[in-house]
Design goal:
Blueprint lengths: L15 H12 L2 H13 L3 H29 L3 H11 L7 H33 L8 H13 L1 H21 L3 H26 L4 H9 L8 H14 L6 H6 L8 H29 L10 H11 L4 H35 L3 H22 L13 H28 L2 H8 L4 H29 L1
Helix pairs in contact: 1-8, 1-12, 1-14, 2-10, 2-12, 3-4, 3-9, 3-10, 3-12, 3-16, 3-18, 4-5, 5-7, 5-14, 5-15, 5-16, 6-13, 7-14, 7-15, 8-12, 8-14, 9-12, 10-16, 10-18, 13-14, 14-15, 16-18
Bound molecules: phenylalanine (PHE).
Phenylalanine binds next to α1, α2, α10 and α14.
Length: 454
């Protein structure tokens, strides 16, 4: 029998607030500011946004509660947590596969996340040295093409990003970072609002809003549906053990429901603000909304290139984007690192070194997919696209189904009731319905539909 009084050997958050900041730091990242706008652009706008919001509310929040709950009860790396809870509930040991798949997904995601994180470092330098001043849409595209076209530059920034990530992970998620996040996340929020303010002056703000919020399903397909759902998982860091491991450091007695809602709200707000900042600039400069991964790197420089004190604000923006990416990247590899510590008896530093090295190596594939390997395609996708599809659209949703079934059907109601300790019975019943029926069924339907489509 597991007593939920025990603490994780890896540590514990000092308070509920620290957990909210850390989990929000993990959730808010490139997914919100880089990925959400470009996916919205590719999938035609508002319909994608609507499905995304629905997925966050109906699947994301109950799933996040389930993951925090499982993590806090197990208090170990996701693999061992799943093993211990499976044992506690007389379920098959194969449930630990969820932990393995999540741990692997984290490393796969980090391998490409780090390349994009490297782009933010490169763009800090560009901004600080004035490359953006007076830049138009065409100039920004050319600058970006030149930047990603160089394998050496790509590998260089990717390497630096991996080093700073593993440095923090190696030291343990300590108070320095927690404190930094407490100040920097609000700063990012303020800067995003400033950018939205700039977008209002472009004359295309309403067009941007209409693109995001006037329902239009004409460009929406089964794949768009899968992508919107995958993005909800990705953006909230669900289905892969990050929230589970962060949950394992949560003090007993913290309200899981209100904390999860707070994290999901903050995360969605940042994504929507990013969209509201970026699309007016896209339309004002006749850029292509469906440009893909290059979108923010082609629009934001134009905005700052025309703003008073744009050099300062531009630099600041990319610094904060780097911070947002950084606080997410450390969470992506935390399951793998704690697994090496628990299962292979490594020290934290050794674990960080080996998992970091493996991830870096894999990241070279993404770094080259924008230059040397642009034409190397599997199933019509570049190495980067393939990794992204495999993780966000398959591994995270499948992991999510497993977690939902486990939390809803295999853990006893007594346990989940006591762990969640919600204010109202109605709240608990709603969670039960969402986690037992809606989440597994909806995610399965979208997956099956989409697999039938391509
Ligand atoms: N949620 C992060 C983002 O939006 C990415 C992430 C995914 C982090 C999964 C941890 C786990 O950028």
């Amino acid at each position: 029998m597991i007593s939920n009084d025990q603490q994780s050997i890896h540590g514990q958050w000092s308070s509920r607030w620290t957990f909210i900041m850390a989990a929000t730091g993990a959730a808010v990242g490139l997914g919100n500011i880089w990925k959400f706008p470009y996916l919205t652009g590719i999938h035609g706008g508002s319909a994608f946004v609507l499905v995304y919001i629905l997925c966050v509310a109906a699947l994301g929040i109950p799933m996040m509660m389930a993951e925090v709950m499982i993590g806090r009860r197990g208090r170990q790396t996701p693999i061992n947590t799943m093993r211990a809870l499976a044992q506690e509930n007389n379920a098959s040991q194969s449930w630990q596969l969820i932990g393995w798949s999540g741990t692997l997904a984290g490393m796969l995601i980090l391998s490409y996340y780090s390349v994009i994180g490297g782009w933010t470092i490169g763009y800090i330098i560009h901004s600080a040295t004035g490359s953006f001043s007076g830049l138009n849409g065409e100039g920004a595209s050319a600058l970006f093409q030149e930047f990603v076209g160089s394998p050496l530059i790509q590998v260089g920034w990717h390497t630096l990003f991996m080093i700073i990530t593993m440095y923090i992970v190696g030291r343990g998620v300590q108070s320095g970072l927690e404190k930094a996040v407490t100040y920097l996340m609000p700063a990012l929020f303020v800067l995003l609002l400033t950018l939205v303010g700039y977008a209002m002056t472009t004359g295309y703000f309403m067009k941007g809003l209409a693109f995001l919020f006037t329902p239009d399903f004409s460009h929406f397909s089964g794949t768009s549906m899968l992508t919107a759902m995958g993005q909800a998982f990705f953006s909230l860091s669900l289905g892969m053990g990050t929230i589970m491991i962060y949950g394992s450091y949560v003090p007993k007695g913290t309200s899981i429901a209100s904390t999860s809602v707070a994290i999901a709200l903050a995360d969605s707000m940042v994504a929507l603000l990013a969209g509201m900042a970026i699309f007016p600039i896209v339309f004002a400069n006749t850029l292509e909304p469906g440009a893909g991964p290059s979108l923010i790197f082609e629009t934001i420089p134009v905005a700052f290139g025309h703003m008073a004190a744009g050099m300062l604000f531009g630099t600041l923006f990319f610094v904060l984007l780097l911070v947002a990416a950084w606080t997410s990247s450390i969470s992506l590899i935390e399951p793998a690192v704690t697994m090496m510590i628990e299962n292979f008896n490594m020290t934290r530093k050794q674990a960080a070194l080996w998992t970091g090295l493996a991830t870096w190596l894999l990241g070279l594939g993404t770094a080259f997919s924008f230059n040397l390997w642009t034409n190397v395609k599997v199933f019509g996708m570049t190495f980067f696209d393939l990794l992204d599809f495999l993780t966000s659209n398959l591994m995270l949703p499948i992991g999510g189904i497993g977690i939902a079934i486990f939390a809803g059907w295999l853990m006893t109601k007594d346990t989940s009731h006591a762990e969640l300790n919600m204010n109202t019975e109605a709240g608990y019943s709603l969670w039960q319905i969402l986690i037992r029926f809606i989440a597994p069924i909806a995610v399965s339907i979208v997956l099956i539909h989409a697999i039938g489509v391509f």
